[in-house]
From TrEMBL:
It comes from the Bacteria. Pfam families: FtsL_2 (PF19579). InterPro entries: FtsL-like. Keywords: Coiled coil. This is S-adenosyl-methyltransferase. Residues 66-93 form a coiled coil.
Length: 130
């Protein structure tokens, strides 16, 4: 009978990762900033630099958009203030022109004068109650 023996396994110092047969995955090692190989010390920072750059661009565009909005709001506030002043002026003029004394002055050249006695109020009993 044979005795049990251990098989010796040859260990590879660098194990290669299994890559699927996808054509895009095959091209990744050509682009150092997308590969996971750390052959070059600087290549590991390229992904982080690209990410920080994109975040910086978004931050800058957001601040420009905020400045544009602030300028637009300031312009609208000025125009609203002008319209408020115009509204107040027109309202005052309308109230002032609708006073009885002002109306009498305007119609006096036409020969219209206010009545000296108050009008008589005629009351009719409600016919539906009977």
């Amino acid at each position: 009978m044979k005795t049990n023996t251990y098989k010796t396994i040859q260990e590879n110092p660098i194990e290669e990762k299994k890559i699927s047969e996808n054509k895009w995955v095959k091209r990744l090692p050509k682009w150092k900033f997308l590969s996971n190989d750390f052959e070059d010390d600087n290549s590991q920072y390229v992904q982080k630099v690209i990410f920080i750059t994109l975040v910086g661009i978004l931050y800058i565009s957001n601040s420009f958009q905020a400045e544009k909005s602030e300028i637009r709001i300031n312009k609208l506030e000025k125009s609203v203030e002008k319209l408020r002043v115009e509204y107040s002026t027109l309202k005052y003029d309308f109230i002032n022109e609708s006073k009885r004394s002002q109306i009498e002055e305007r119609v006096a050249p036409l020969g219209l004068v206010p009545p000296e006695t108050a009008p008589i109020v005629i009351t009719v009993p409600n016919l539906e109650d009977n």
